[in-house]
Amino acid sequence: MSYLLGLDVGSTNLKAVLFGTDGRVVAKQDVATECCHPDPAHPEWAVWQPGQIWEGIAQSVRAVTSAVAGGEILGVAVTGMGMDGVPIDKAGKWLYPFISWHCPRTAPQQAWWLEHIGADEQFARGGNQVWPFNTALRLRWMQEHEPAILRKTRKWLLIEDFVNFMLCGETATDYSMASTTLLFDQRTRTWNDDFLQRSGIDRSLLCEPLPAGTMIGRVHQAAAAITGLKLGTPVVLGGHDYCCGCLPTGAFEPGVLLDVLGTWEMVVSALCQPVLTPEVQRMGVVVDSHVARDRYAVMGATVAADMLEWFKREIGLPSSSCGDESASEWAQLIGLAAQSPLGSNGVFFLPHMSGSFCPVLDPTSTGAFVGLRNITGRGDLFRAMIEGLNYQFLEIIRAFGHGLGVPSDKIVVIGGPTKNPLWMQNKADVTGIVVEVPDMEEAVPLGAAILAGIGTGVYRDEQDAFSHVYRPGTSYVPDPQAQARYRELYARYEELYPTLKTFVQKTAP
């Protein structure tokens, strides 16, 4: 038997998933990712320890390789979170922990970047929103606070590139990961010398950017000993997690929208050319180079299931009615929401409890229930939250269409909430588009495994890989009557934010 290995370096887990070439999971294992706060003088600072990242990945890989003794792993590729990086010296030793995206220390560097380079120019060249955790801001922080360490640094490795380095000893990055740094030019797909010069960042610290799916090396003896991988196993460049998730779901072709649904909702679509206009920048999206060849990815993100978690935690059900199992409480809440009529008995929910990021970029906005009466029940509130999240999703895909010319022919949804049929059917009814939940496990590491397969010749290209691994699952078809009613309700929803904005601004602390 032949297999492909996808590794996923996430904020929650360090995961290894072994796939057959048909995309089916053969074995998987994960180890918790440990976010640390090691500086007593700055307890809010957050880091990932490089040793824990590598040992956790190695432990996960060892578990899956031992499960398939006798089979051949044809290649391995890494995906995961962006931005976070680690300095290594000439001997390959790490010199400082990864500054986590949770860490607030680079807020002053963000302010510097916005003043000296600016949000408009940054987006026009790199497709980035300037977030406080972007890679370049960590390098600026090191310049200011740890210059001696930076002088010893040979390379600054993004977290996926660090795992590749530990596997094969080579330093490289792919276009999608380079896109997260603030230092990459989307039109030339090279480092932006102007931004490097103005920020004082040494270009030699950065890895060479290459297309995802490029074989960069082979597993060396030390890595083979700790992971159980065969000496010489090809190591292939993967890429940013949400881009990798597009490969097995078909969202590398324009017109197919990938909805990665979880704590956050990330909506991703492919572009043939980067669209870097001021209008698109004001939508709060990012435009990155894709892991698919000759493609770009536009991504809009908003907080989603985290708000339902808040509802369950703070309002939920009386303990006597749901027993001890959290799953039972979810089932009962979904059941109550299903009993509430379309439109939630007149209740609307504005899903801005963590601010608004796309397509309305307003971090100061707040969530709200509107239309409460003395007959409103938990089911009405819970259904209103699902409807509000889907109205927000419709806002995003409409913005993609207007600002980017991206068609929305098909929606493919992955993530834990796909197990909630009420949410999925409501998404179809609100948008008027068929929603497909594929019969697929671990789409993001599968995308990395696909890149390993492309890099080793298992698949000719993305389309060939897709034809081997995609398995349709459940399709949710819009109900015409519900769709017509939601068209009316969505028009009312659109009034919520502008109506409440002034009130929120006047009452802000």
Overview of the molecule:
This protein is an alpha+beta fold and about 500 residues long. It has two domains: about 1-245, Nucleotidyltransferase, domain 5 (2-Layer Sandwich), CATH 3.30.420; about 250-435 and about 480-509, Nucleotidyltransferase, domain 5 (2-Layer Sandwich), CATH 3.30.420.40. It is built from 21 helices and 24 strands. The strands form seven sheets. Strands 18-19-17-16-22-23-24 form a seven-stranded mixed sheet. A six-stranded mixed sheet has the order 3-2-1-6-15-14. Helix 2 packs across helix 4 (about 135-145) and helix 16 (about 380-405) packs across helix 17 (about 420-430). The radius of gyration is 23 Å and the shape is globular. The model has no long low-confidence stretch (mean pLDDT about 95).
Summary tags:
509 residues, alpha+beta, Nucleotidyltransferase, domain 5, 7-stranded mixed β-sheet, 6-stranded mixed β-sheet, 24 strands
